[in-house]
Amino acid sequence: MVALIFNEVLRADGEGLHGFFRVVAVPLATSTVWLAYIGPWADASARPGDAGHESVIGSLTQVARGTLLAMESDGRLAAIDLRPEGKMLLPSDDLGEDEKSLWERRRLLMEPFLNHEVVADALVQTSGIGPVVRQALAAGDGTRATVYRLWRLLCQNGFDTSSLHPRFDRCGAPGALRPHQAGKKKVGPKTLREQRGEPIAHP
Q1: Going residue by residue through the chain (203 aa), what tens digit of pLDDT does each one get?
Q2: What does the DSSP 8-state code read for residue 91?
Q3: What's the DSSP call for residue 51?
Q4: Which residues does 91 contact at the CB level (< 8 Å), separation at least 6?
Q5: What's the rounded Cα separation, in Å, for the pair 51 and 127?
Q6: Cα gap 39→43, rounded to integer Å
Q7: What is the pTM for the complete model shown?
Q8: Which of 7, 55, 112, 140 has the most neighbouring CB atoms within 10 Å?
């Protein structure tokens, strides 16, 4: 059953509301809920008319509670349990020294976004997260682009400090040169064409 509470993940299949969404704000004394788009359905390609704001992760939509409850009664809305990746489940004490340092900076920068009341007030007053972004920039050490990138992470993985864990496991060592050596395979990940086994037109 859909509870329409902060941080809940919804799977929607309605007109103009198709895909996976996270509840980012449930303002008091209002009849609406703010949802952030976090991903498409597997069959999103079969619905070309649904492109638009939903194609951007973290984009916001204000929806009336009555609309969502009606969608649920029609079987077009359901709450799901979205499990985060294993790296997000690690306690912060298990992070490496560099990872922990970066995570700490991210946590301080995004602290206003982890306060539901601050986000809800900003959305009620301005219909956007601009005031929260300005508050984060005034108190933290970061750029506007970084704040919006981390906002998308929070929307995708949940409004918890563990969602801000760095993903050093996805990148190579910084500053480490990997020159090509004759007779050995090219260093680094294969391109998408190489993974699919497609010939390269102009190698």
Answers
A1: 788 999 999 999 988 899 999 999 999 888 999 999 999 976 544 454 444 445 799 999 999 999 999 999 999 999 999 887 777 777 888 888 888 898 899 999 999 999 999 999 999 999 999 999 999 999 878 899 999 999 999 999 999 999 998 877 666 555 666 667 777 776 666 777 777 777 767 66
A2: -
A3: -
A4: 162
A5: 21
A6: 12
A7: 0.77
A8: 112
